Amino acid sequence: MEEITKGTLMIIGGAEDKQGDCIILKTLINLSNRRGGQIVVLTAATEHPQKTADEYIDVFERLGASKISTVHIQSRQDANGLEESKKISQASCIFMTGGDQLRITSIMGGTRSEYALYEAFNKGAIIAGTSAGASVMSETMIISGNNEDAPRKCTLKMAPGLGLLKDVVIDQHFAQRGRIGRLLTAIAQNPHVLGIGIDEDTGLIVNDEAIFEIIGSNAVTIIDGSHSDFSNVSELEPDEILAFTNIKMHVLPAGYKYNIKTRKPIFRR
């Protein structure tokens, strides 16, 4: 499988701690400082860009970041701006805020800023995202679906993501919003991809060998449907309950790792 390139991904399930130990964001700042410390807060996902950016700038400065800028992309004209794309391409860390993941792809898709993001990643930058900024990392992303409901075909909507991480689909706020049903439906429809559900205040650090390490206070749920022997997803009426058999699931807390290429967990020693 073709895998991620030179950069590092930090994929956060949302509602990360900003007041206490701040394990996830502190780790992000430390990683960024090792690579030059130039952080860009990218607010394309949110309709409240200044308020959202200010919140993260305050936290990042408190945690030791000194070179922080913002890129407010609220239209495709913004996304094609020379100044915006230059900031992104020169960053050592790009942090995508929460909001609506479809805003990111629909506003940035095919623009200078999207290409600048890939350029930065290919040069070794950290691309981080929380909530919507997490979901958009994969090639195919979940954009809506009922929470706390049995898996049903009609409740799930998907769209292309940024494709920074291949052969996975990511869901966030996972356990807190009861999203296992919609992730199961996503994997039934795309059994070749790996389902990754990330809890709040939990993150993945993905290296260039397609191995991720879990950090934070909760867990990550991994669903592998590649060896499934039955699914009724193609036969379902829109509101029928999904049948999906012989699937593999892992639940891993902080300190554990997982190899996306081999699809095997790496246990703590």
List its salient traits:
269 residues; alpha/beta; Rossmann fold; nine-stranded mixed β-sheet; four-stranded mixed β-sheet; 28% strand; globular
Total number of strands? 17
Spans of at least 5 consecutive residues with low confidence? none
Taking Cα atoms only, what radius of gyration do you get, to the nearest Å? 18 Å
- Could you name the CATH class? Alpha Beta
Percent in helix? 25-40%
Question: CATH H level: which superfamily?
Answer: Class I glutamine amidotransferase (GATase) domain
CATH fold description: Rossmann fold
Task: Quote the average pLDDT.
Answer: 94
Terminal residue distance: 28 Å
Q: How would you write the strand order of the largest sheet?
A: 3-2-4-5-1-10-11-16-17
- Helix segment tally: 8
Which term fits the overall shape? globular
Q: Would you identify the CATH architecture?
A: 3-Layer(aba) Sandwich
Number of domains: 1
**How would you classify the helix and strand content by structural class?**
alpha/beta
How much strand content do the residues show? 25-35%
N-to-C SSE series? Answer: EHEHEHHEHHEHEEEHEEEEEEEEE
